[in-house]
Design brief:
eight-stranded mixed beta sheet, 196 residues, single chain, 5 helices, alpha/beta
Length: 196
């Protein structure tokens, strides 16, 4: 079965973006970038990968899921940010009319994200990337099989959290690798511990 992978940049104080979705403080230069652009090339926006000659082969991810606010960061300039992947954008209030121009390989849906992800997991293919945001991650917490956190040496003080607060219900993950880079970015990977 395919994995749902929450691969995301996060600050030391647990934010994936600023209060209005700002993410420009995250470092995009440094020795961590080669590693990320090689292993996670499928997660580089199509237009950026094409501009910088980053090869994507769909072996890591072939599908991305995200909430409307994460998706809307690129609008109106980029109506299909990951057109090399199947894209699912979740919103209960938006329609295709809110997306300017053509948006290939993109499905805007008001379906239950858990049901959509379970359907996608049952299909053949590569892993499914949970791009964001924090509220969608909270809804999908029980479906997340792997966490890949790119911790940056930053404090935001406020913003969109990695996970929104919810009911107290511990879930265990096991660290399977951590790499610290000279840039100060630390990439840690965790897999869900399944009860026996």
């Amino acid at each position: 079965m395919r994995e749902l992978v929450y691969y995301v940049a996060v600050t030391l104080d647990g934010y994936i973006a600023g209060p209005s979705g700002e993410f420009d403080a995250f470092p995009v230069e440094g020795d961590h970038m080669h590693h990320l652009n090689t292993r996670f090339a499928d997660a580089v926006p199509t237009h950026i990968a094409e501009a910088f000659g980053i090869e994507r082969d769909g072996t890591m991810f072939d599908t991305v899921v995200m909430g409307w606010n994460t998706f809307a960061v690129g609008l109106p300039a980029v109506p299909s940010p990951y057109r090399h992947l199947r894209q699912f954008v979740f919103s209960r209030t938006r329609s295709d009319a809110d997306i300017p121009g053509e948006h290939p390989n993109l499905t805007l849906t008001d379906e239950d994200p858990v049901e959509v992800v379970r359907r996608l997991k049952a299909e053949p293919g590569a892993s499914i990337w949970l791009c964001g945001g924090g509220s969608l991650a909270t809804v999908l917490a029980d479906e997340i099989d792997r966490l890949v956190l790119k911790r940056s040496p930053l404090l935001f003080g406020d913003g969109i959290p990695l996970f929104e607060p919810g009911a107290y219900r511990p879930r265990s993950f096991e660290e399977v690798g951590t790499t610290a880079f000279e840039s100060g970015v630390v990439v840690s990977e965790y897999v869900r511990r399944r009860s026996m």
